[in-house]
Each structure stands twice: as structure tokens, then as C-alpha cells.
Specification:
Order of helices and strands: HEHEEEHEHEHE
Number of strands: 7
Helix content: 25-40%
Number of domains: 1
CATH architecture: 3-Layer(aba) Sandwich
CATH topology: Rossmann fold
CATH superfamily: Vaccinia Virus protein VP39
């Protein structure tokens, strides 16, 4: 696990626990992917309920009664849960895989199902990505810092400037050198000036 990802998990953990109510921490993870490597489950293990939804992956809950997963279109989840049911709703590396109208629909769904916090993690603007093995993994839209700022999200830069990375957030060669500069510039600059970062961690409290 690299240092940049560890910092990402630390940020994620902090925001998840900020959404916790006195008696519960109910989490909805939209586009959860493989829960065996889920960043949400890596960051947090003190939840009362975790629900993961993904159109491509479907993983068993490993006999954990607090974990439930659905393989279906993420928008169908509102059929099963009432308004404001979850303390936090997350969509990590999801919105860029939807067309713009689908992305707006996703944000509305998140705000409907959450009572405390919503979290979106996405590239800052359009980042080309094509996966011949999984069409759900292609990027079809770009979401900029300015959009989230305008819609009252708080924003943190995560991986440093775009020039050091390419598709799938993979470091360009030489990886060690680019990884070092990417990390240092994130720590010193882009974490606090996220409009300059390639990836943005956006969160908003639901009032």
C-alpha cells in the first residue's frame, strides 16, 4: 500500500466517522466494486450497517450480518431504503463513469438517502480511461473542482498534479521519481489548493 493511498484512507476514515450519529453508523457505498479491497471497509470497521451496490461486482458478505451487497444498477437502491436512512452515502470513483445527467441524478439520490454526509471522489475534470474488459470502468464525463465548490462541497486534493499520472491513476515512468514529486506536491500544495490536483475528495453535510 503506497503512502498516497494511505493518506486517502486516512481522509476517508475521518469523514466517515464525522457522519456517525450517537447510536449508529449506516453506510451506503455506491459503485462499491470488490468489497474485499473496498477503501470504505479498509478505512472503517466500526459501522452498524454497510450496504454496497455495484452493477459489475457482487461479493458475499463473508457471513457478516452488518454487511449487505447488491449487484444491480446503483439507482435501483432507493427501492429498498427510505429517505435519509443512511448516515453517510459515498460514491468513490463512480460519477465519472456516468454521463452528465446521470451524474446529477446520482448526487440527488445521495442527498435523498443520506441524513448526515455525502462523499464523492473523482478525477478533477475529464480523465480519459478505457477498459476493454469492463465497459462500466470507462470514463464518460468530467467533474471539476469549480462544480463542487459551487455546490457547497468541501474539497481536498488527493494525488498531486495531473502531469505525474495517466489512465487508472497510474504513475507515469519513471514511477519512483514521479511518485515522489506527486506525493510531495500534494502534501505541500495541492491538498490545500485542490483546484490544482488531479483527483478531488468532495464531501458535503446534509442539513
Amino acid at each position: 500500500m503506497n503512502i498516497a493511498y494511505k493518506l486517502y484512507l486516512r481522509t476517508l476514515k475521518k469523514i466517515i466517522y464525522e457522519s456517525k450519529t450517537e447510536k449508529s453508523l449506516k453506510i451506503l457505498d455506491l459503485g462499491c466494486g470488490d468489497i474485499n479491497i473496498s477503501p470504505v471497509l479498509n478505512a472503517c470497521n466500526e459501522f452498524t450497517e454497510y450496504v454496497g451496490v455495484d452493477g459489475h461486482h457482487h461479493d458475499e458478505s463473508k457471513n457478516n450480518p452488518k454487511i449487505k451487497t447488491y449487484k444491480m444498477n446503483i439507482f435501483e437502491i432507493e427501492k429498498f431504503y427510505s429517505k435519509n436512512y443512511f448516515d453517510i452515502v459515498l460514491a468513490l470513483d463512480v460519477i465519472e463513469h456516468l454521463p452528465e445527467d446521470g451524474g446529477m441524478k446520482l448526487i440527488s439520490l445521495m442527498e435523498k438517502l443520506s441524513k448526515n454526509m455525502i462523499v464523492i471522489f473523482t478525477p478533477n475534470g475529464f480523465l480519459e480511461q478505457y477498459d476493454p474488459k469492463n465497459k462500466f470502468n470507462n470514463h464518460v464525463s468530467g467533474w471539476k473542482y469549480s462544480f463542487f465548490k459551487r455546490n457547497n462541497f468541501k474539497i481536498i486534493g488527493i494525488y498531486g498534479p495531473k502531469i505525474f499520472r495517466k489512465e487508472f491513476c497510474e504513475l507515469r515512468k519513471p514511477k519512483f521519481l514521479n511518485g515522489f514529486f506527486s506525493f510531495m506536491l500534494n502534501i505541500l500544495i495541492t491538498r490545500y489548493f485542490p483546484r490544482l490536483d488531479m483527483s478531488i475528495f468532495c464531501y458535503k453535510k446534509i442539513s
